[in-house]
What we know:
Largest sheet: 6 strands, antiparallel
Domain Aminoglycoside phosphotransferase: 1028-1254
Region (Disordered): 321-344, 749-772
InterPro entries: ACAD10_11_N, Aminoglycoside_PTrfase, Kinase-like_dom_sf, SSU_processome_Utp12, TBC1_cilium_biogenesis, WD40/YVTN_repeat-like_dom_sf, WD40_PAC1, WD40_repeat_CS
Number of strands: 67
CATH topology of the domain at 1124-1363: Aminoglycoside 3'-phosphotransferase, Chain: A, domain 2
Protein name: WD40 repeat-like protein
CATH superfamily of the domain at 1124-1363: Aminoglycoside phosphotransferase (APH), C-terminal lobe
CATH class of the domain at 1124-1363: Alpha Beta
Helix content: 10-25%
CATH architecture of the domain at 1124-1363: Alpha-Beta Complex
GO biological process, one term: maturation of SSU-rRNA
Strand content: 25-35%
Amino acid sequence: MVKxxxxxxxxxxxxxxxxxxxxxxxxxxxxxxxxxxxxxxIVAANEDVLCWDIRKGELLSRWKDKDCNSQVxxxxxxxxxxxxxxxxxxxxxxRLWDSxxxxxxxxxxxxxxxxxxxxxxxxxVRLASGSKDTDVIIWDLxxxxxxxxxxxxxxxxxxxxxxxxxxxxxxxxDGEEAVEIASDPVxxxxxxxxxxKNALIKLWDISSQHCIETHVAxxxxxxxxxxxxxxxSGCITTGNDGELKVWSIDTAGLFKLSTQxxxxxxxxxxxxxxxxxxxxxxxATGVSFHPRLDYFAVHGSEKAIEIWRIRSEEEVKKSLxxxxxxxxxxxxxAMDVDGGDLDEKSEDASTAEIGDFFVSYVIVRTGGKVRSLxxxxxxxxxxxxxxxxxxNNQLEVYSIPTKEKSKKxxxxxxxxxxxxLSVELPGHRADVRALSLSSDDRMLASASxxxxxxxxxxxxxCIRTFxxxxxxxxxxxxxxxxxxxxxxxxxxxxxxxxxxxxxxxVKAHEGAIWTLQVHPDGRSLASGSADKTTKFWNxxxxxxxxxxxxxxxxxxxxxxxxxxxxxxxxxxxxFSPDSRLLAVALLDNTVKVFFVDSLKLxxxxxxxxxxxxxxxxxxxxxxxxxxxxxxxxxxxxxxxxDCHKAFFxxxxxxxxxxxVPHNQDGNGHHFFSTSKDRMIKYWDxxxxxxxxxxxxxxxxxxxxxxxxxxxxLVSASHDKSIRVWEQTDEQIFLEEERExxxxxxxxxxxxxxxxxxxxxxxxxxxxGTAGKxxxxxxxxxxxxxxxxxxxxxxxxxxxxxxxxxxxxxxxxSPARNPLFMALGGISAEAxxxxxxxxxxAAALQDALLVLPFSTLPMLFTFLNIxxxxxxxxxxxxxxxxxxxxxxxxxxxxxxxxRLMLDGIRINLRQALKKQKDEMGYNLAALRVIGAQVxxxxxxxxxxxxxxxxxxxxxxxxxxxxxxxxRPRLSSVVEITSCNAPQNASIQQQLSQTTTVDTMAxxxxxxIDIQALERYISKNVPEIxxxxxxxxxxxxxxxxxYQLTANNGTKxxxxxxxxxxLVSKTAHQVEREYKVIHALEKxxxxxxxxxxxxxxxxxxxxxxxxxEFLDGRIIEDAxxxxxxxxxRTEMWHDAIRTLAKLHRIKPVDVGLEGFGRxxxxxxxxxxxxxxxSKAQAEAVDVETKEPxxxxxxxxxxxxxxxxxxxxxxxxxxxxxxxxxxxxxVFHKSEPRVIGILDWEMSTIGHPxxxxxxxxxxxxxxxxxxxxxxxxxxxGETPGLPSAKDLVKWYGEVTGWDPSPELNWGIAFGFFRxxxxxxxxxxxxxxxxxxxxxxxxxxxxxxxxxxxxxRHVRTARERSKGKARL
Length: 1364
C-alpha cells in the first residue's frame, strides 16, 4: 500500500508593512479624502499589495492573486478612475486591480523580467510599462491587449511618463487669452518620455511608434529616475553623486508636431537647462514633483529626503538684484546712488542660472533608508505632506510648512518638519531572527534586532511590542506569561506579556547567546553562547517590595545553577524530550551529546564539513536531526550516535530544522528544514525522503516554529514576512509530488525556450509586438487547435446529414462527437466560439500565434460562419485582422486563402453594416431623450458630476441619504439594439428609469415648517431655506422626512412620533444621532449627521438632520431584480459591513458611555419584560380593548434568565435592527453605502444583530407564520446559505458565533414578538406612521408561538451538550 501524507499549505501572512521592492502610492480614501482623513497608502508586500489606513495604521485590504507568487516591483494609480491600480511583478507580468473589490480585473504578460516602472496616460485607457529587460510596452486597457513594444535602451528602464501636450494659450489683440485650435484636429496620441540606467533619456512619438529624440541624461554614468512637472513643461533626471539634471520640454512644439498629418521631428523638444547637486552624495534613486505646488522631492538610498522649492519669476528677479548689489559692494563702486536702490524690474530672469530657480528647501530625516515617496494632498491641510516608504518595513508621513506659512521666521532658518503619522506597529524594523509559539499555540513571539512582538496567531494581529537588544533566540516560559530573549551582547531579557513591561535583564554570557531552550520539566532553561559555555538557569519566585508601601509583589528571576564549558562557540542546544540528554552544536562542525544530570559526554557526532547551525530531537528521543552550512541534513541515532542518513537537502546553507513534536498520526519522525534558498522542505525521517516543498518566501528563512499539535508551522524570512502554513485534509503521495516538480521544470524550460533570442532580427528593430508565450497561452492555443479539428469533422458530418435528409427526410441524425452531446448538443461553430471567448483578451494574440499555418483554413471557415450568423462580431474581427497581419505573406501567395477571404469580406461587411445601423439608431434615440429631458427643464447630460435629474423617473422603491455620483444618462436608460418596428415609445423607456424621489410623498404627520426653517437658518448653514418637505413611506417607528433645500440639495430629518409615547426607551432619536456621528470617521458606512435638536417647540418632538443617500433600498431580502453574482456579493457586503461594525471598540469612537459592555442579554430581558407589560396594557382608542400579553411570556423569560445558558459577553456597538431593508446599496455596485434606523443601537452582544439579519433563513420550516419566498435552499440562484453568512462574518470579526447561534435565534424571535406587540400598541394609540401597522401588529401572536418553539429547541440542545 502506498503511504500518503497530509499536505501543508500557506494560509496567512503578516508582519509586512511594505516591501522594499516597489514604490508607495498615496490615495484619497473612499470618503473623498474629507477633512481629518489622511488617505490610504498602497504598498507592495512581497507578492501581495496592501492598502493601509494611514491615520489608524490598520490594514484595509490585501490584494492577492493565487496564481502569482512573484514579488510586486512597481505600482501606479489611474488618475481617471482612482480605484484602479496597476501592479508590476518580478516575473514581468502586470495586473490591474480594482481596489473596491480587491480583485485583479486584467492581467498582461509581455516583459521577460521584472517591471521597474508604470505610468497611466491622462485618459486612463493606456498604460506604459518599463522593465529590466530594457523594453517599454504600451498597453490598451480597453481592448486588454499590448499595442507595441519600444526598444532602444541598453539597460533597465528607470523612468517613464506620458507627455500629452494641450493646445497652447495665446494672447489675442485685446489682451484676452485664446486657445489655439488646430485647423484639422486629429486624435492626439501624445508622446512618451523614458530614461534608462544606461544614462539615456528618450522621447518617443506614440503615433508613429519611433524615437524622435535621444540625449545623455547624466554625465556620471547612470540615470536612476525621472520626474516630470505637473504641467509637462519640464523634467528632472537623477544620477550618481547626487547629480540632478533639469530639462525643459517644448510642449507647444510637440502639440504642433502631433497635429501634423505627416509631421516629422525637425526641431529639438528637450533642452538641457543645467545641473543641480543635492547634499547627499549617494545616487539619487527617486524624484517627484508636488502635483499642485512648486516643490519637488528627491531621495537616495540614505535616511533623508531633500525638498526643493521652485522660485517664482519675481523671486528670481529679487535674487538677481541682490547678487548685483553684492557684486557692486565687493568691487567698491562709488556709485552709491545706483547701488543703494536697485530697480528689480530691470533684472531679466532669462539670464538667471538654474540654481536661481531651484533652491534646496529642507532635508527631512527619516527613520530608515528611503525606498520611495509620494505626495499626500488632503483637504484642509495647511502644509505640504509626503509619505515615505523605508527599507526597514515602515511608512512615515511628514508635514513640512510651505514658504508662505514659514515666512515669519528668519530666512536663514530651515523650516521645521514633523513626523505626523506612521505605520510601523504591524511589523519589525529588522529581520526576524527567532520565533517561539506558546504552549497552547495561540501566541507567537518574534524577535529581531531591537524589537520583540507578541502576535495572536489566529487573527494575525500584534498584541504586544517591546524594545529589546539584538535578539538571536526567544522562548515562552511555562505559563505563557513571560518571554525570554537571548541577545547578541550576551544578555537574557525577561518580558511580561500581560503587563507589557520588561521584568529583568541578566548579563548571562560574555559572548552572543545563539540559542536557549526551556527544560522539558518547565522548571529551568539552558542558554548557549559564543563564549563557549552553556549555562543552566532555574526559575525562582521572590517577593519584591513595592516602593513607598509596606507591600510586596511576587517577581520571577533567573538563578544560575550550573555551567558546561566546551572547546568552541556554541551555536545550538537541545534537550531530549525525556530530559535525559543535552545536545550541543559547536562551531567546529561537531555535535556533542551530554547527560543532563552529570554533564558527562555521551556521544560525539562527526560528519558535517561546515558548522551545524541548528538541530532538533524527535518526540521519542531516538533521533536527532542536524543541519549545516554545508547544505546537508544528517539523521543520527541517539542510542549509539550512528548516522542513519546524510542527504543534500537545499541549494544553500540550512538554517533551521524542527521535528513534528508528537506522533498522533505516525508523523513523529517527520521534520521541516529551512534554508537561504528560500524554501521550506518537509521530510520523512524514517524513509529519508522529501514529502513536500513549501514555496512562498522571497529571501532566506531565518526562523521556524512548529505548533505543539503539528497542525501548522510558522516561518520568518529576510523578506520581513511571517507566514503560517497549515495542515490540510488533502492527501499527497511522493510519486505525485515528484511528477509535479518535473512538470514545473518542463514548463519553465519550455517557456524559456520560446523566448526570442536577444540578438535576433526581431529584437534589433525599434518597435516590436507586445507579447510573451506562457503556459496559459500555450494551453489556450492547443485548445483552439483541438476545437478547430473536431469542429471541422462535425461540420462535414452535419453537412452530409443535411444532404441525405434532403432526399430522405427520415434519415437518423448522425453520431456526433460525445463532447458536443455533453455540452447540450451545441453546434461546432458555437463550441469553437466558446473556446476562443474563454481565452483572456490579453492572452488571445499569443494563443493564436501557437496555431500553425495549416490550421488557418479551418479557422477562416469558422470566421466566415461567425460573420454570416452575427456571432460576436468584435471578436471575429479581432481574430481575423490579427491572423491577416501575422500570416500576410503566406495568405497572399495562396489562391485558396484569397477566395476564402472574399467570402469573409462580403459577410463581414453586411454584419458590420447592420451593427452600424443599430448604433446609429441608438445614438438617435439618445438625442431624442436628451431633447425631451431638456424640454422638461433638466440640465444637459454632459458629465456625471454635473448631470442631474429634477423629475421623477420611475416607481421602484429606493431611498438613501448621501448623494452618490450620478451615472451618465447612457447607463441609466438602457437602449437595446432596436429595429424600426421596435421604435414604439422612447418616452416609455425613459419612464422605466428609477430614482429615490418616489419614496417621499405627502406629509401624513404635519410639522411647523416655518419654525423648522428658522432653526435651520441659525444652526445648519449647509441647508438653504426655504425648504420643501415630504414624508417617506417607510419608518413605522420614527417619522422620516425628506427636506429639499432651495438649491435642490436633499437632506433627511428623523423625529420622534407625536403624542404620549408608550415606552421611554423607544424612539430615541438622540441615540441615533450620537452613534451615527461617532461612526462617521470609521469604515462603517453611515450618513453624515448635521445637527440634533432636542427643543420640542420646533416640530413638536426631538429630531436630527442627516445627509441624503441616493442608493437602493431593497425590501425583498431575496433581491429578485439583481443577477445571481450581484446577489451573492450584496449579501456578502451586508454581512461584511455588519462585521466591521462589531469589530469596533467603543472607546475608540467615543461610545464608551453609550451602553454597558457586560450583561447585555440580562438588560435586554429586563427591558423587553418592562416594555411588553406596558404595551400589553395599551388600549385601542376606538374599540377600548387592550393589546394583551404575548404567549408563553413567563416560560420564555425563565429560560432566558438562566445565565449559564447565555452567550459570553463581548461588548461591541450593535445596530439593534440590522436587516437588508435597513441598508442602502449603491445604485450600480453591489456594496453598502449606508446603514439606517439606529434608534435601537447600543453597546451589546453582536450575536443579536447577526440573528436579526439571518431571520429569513429560519422561517423556511415554520407553519405558524408565512415563510419568506425564495429562502429555501437552491430556490434563489446566488443567495448564500446561512453557513456562508456565518463563515464570512467570522472571517472579518475573528470569532465563530456558531456555538451560540441556537440561543440567539430563540431570543431573536422573542424580541421580534415584543416589537410586533409594540407596533400593535402604537396602532392602538394611533401613533403608528405606517398604513401597514395594524397588519404587522397582528403578527405578535404567531411570532410568540414561534419564539416558544425555538426556546424549547434551544433548551433541549443545551441539555444535550451538558450530557456530553
